[in-house]
Design a protein that fits this description.
heterodimer, A: alpha+beta, four-stranded antiparallel sheet, 3 helices, B: alpha+beta, five-stranded mixed β-barrel, 9 helices, 26% helix
């Protein structure tokens, strides 16, 4: 997932608090931010963050995970669906999904609550 | 609007400079003083007005060689009247701060000092870049991309990428093959219509392309005489020297190409996804801050109706042949 910065300083974010990553990542139901602007083209998406002007590109695979980040599906459930869809081992899918969720959070595109 | 040479009416006698350009009469409201004016040092300063596509530029300088070089590239689009608010005001003057200090040259844009240079060979490239910087800063009527653009039979082609990928050399090659010209450095997109608009600057070529351009029999103006800091010797090619009617009319974007030069490779076109293209174009947007989230939206719409490719370029002729075969389909 690539990112380009807007040509102006970032405003201090008063958005959702940062995630604290623990072993309970699998129980976390990542909620995507609803204020991001999506431009879909040919099964991929360009996301624009109006808060800081950053732009992200998601290919089809990343987009599937992103769409499942609805605040209701846990990371484990998302992993199970991806493993079934792509016919891969659960552990393989888990690495991929967890890395994506961490990237989403680090990019501040999730409405995330701190983990206990 | 294409670059236009506007002649004064019969009742207005033109004032001719020593190098043949035409200037407005002294009562022209755009001009603040009659000219040629004399500074307190007794040096004559001259003012010349040009319409470079969408951008009016007023150049004021006492340095005859700078005026001559600039007029050699843009004399064909000299005008007598322009929209005062839109006009980019450029000034080039010599300074010596104190008896024992080195002589320097100051390039100012719209009243603000942009560069201080110490070699005359840097003045024309500095002036060109000064104009670019003022256009980027002021002309938010257009979404501006760091890209070259041409038109083939009314279909726009964007050649986007960072410095050194071969945009300008490819542009020169395509113009020699009959394409029409928008710009080789700043592509203007009209947000409401998504049409390309012309800003037909002189094509700025680095020394590595001189031989290639000579092989096309294209006349580089005073090559090797100009130095651009960090880029070394540069040459300027007036697009009008290639074809008098070379400036393109506004047209939609039909192709987005990302060139990348590698010496002696066989040219190759590879499709890129439209999202990749929109994302890369967003990275090329020069005045993106002025457009905010509208910039990606505009570029998404641009690529939605365009074919998008990466182009690995080697030698110029086969690369242009490959592009031409794409444009003909």
């Amino acid at each position: 997932m690539m990112r380009i910065a807007l040509n102006k300083p970032n405003e201090p974010s008063s958005a959702a608090p940062r995630l604290r990553w623990t072993d309970q990542l699998g129980e976390f139901a990542p909620p995507r931010r609803r204020d991001l602007i999506e431009h879909e083209l040919d099964g991929e998406v360009m996301l624009c963050d109006p808060r800081n002007g950053y732009t992200y590109r998601m290919n089809a695979t990343t987009l599937q995970v992103w769409r499942l980040c609805d605040g209701l599906s846990t990371t484990t459930q998302i992993t199970a669906r991806q493993a079934e869809l792509y016919d891969v081992e659960f552990d393989t899918a888990q690495d991929h999904v967890e890395q994506l969720v961490v990237r989403f959070a680090e990019s501040d595109i999730l409405d995330a609550e701190p983990l206990p | 609007m294409n670059a236009v040479t506007k002649l004064p009416r019969e009742s207005e006698p033109p004032v001719r400079s020593s190098f043949g350009g035409l200037f407005a009469p002294s009562d022209d409201p755009l001009q603040r003083e009659s000219f040629p004016a004399r500074s307190s040092a007794g040096i004559t300063s001259c003012t010349a007005l040009y319409q470079i596509g969408e951008i009016p530029v007023l150049l004021r300088t006492e340095l005859q060689d700078v005026l001559h070089d600039f007029d050699a590239l843009y004399g064909y689009c000299g005008i007598t009247h322009a929209d005062g608010e839109k006009t980019v005001h450029m000034e080039v003057r010599a300074e010596r701060l104190g008896l024992w200090r080195r002589k320097s040259y100051v390039i100012s844009g719209d009243g603000a000092q942009l560069f201080r240079l110490y070699r005359r060979s840097e003045l024309l490239p500095g002036l060109e870049w000064g104009i670019n910087s003022r256009v980027i800063a002021r002309f938010d009527d257009y979404l501006q991309l760091h890209a070259a653009s041409v038109a083939y039979q009314g279909r726009g082609v964007i050649l986007a990428g960072t410095s050194g990928v071969g945009k300008s050399t490819l542009t020169a090659g395509l113009l020699a093959r009959g394409c029409k010209y928008f710009c080789d450095e700043i592509t203007l997109i009209e947000p409401g219509t998504l049409l390309l608009r012309a800003f037909p600057k002189a094509i700025n070529l680095k020394s590595g392309s001189f031989e290639t351009v000579r092989e096309l029999n294209l006349p580089l103006a005073r090559e090797c005489r100009h130095i651009k800091k960090h880029k070394g010797p540069v040459g300027f090619l007036s697009p009008r020297a290639i074809e008098p009617l070379c400036v393109a009319d506004p047209c939609p974007v039909c192709y987005v190409i990302f060139p990348h030069y590698t010496e002696s490779v066989k040219p190759c076109l590879r499709p890129v996804t439209r999202t990749q293209a929109a994302f890369r174009l967003t990275g090329c947007a020069l005045n993106r801050a002025a457009f905010g989230v509208q910039a990606p939206a505009i570029l998404t719409e641009i690529v939605r109706h365009a074919q998008c490719y990466s182009l690995e370029t080697g030698d110029l002729q086969p690369s242009c042949e490959l592009l031409e075969s794409l444009l003909r389909t």
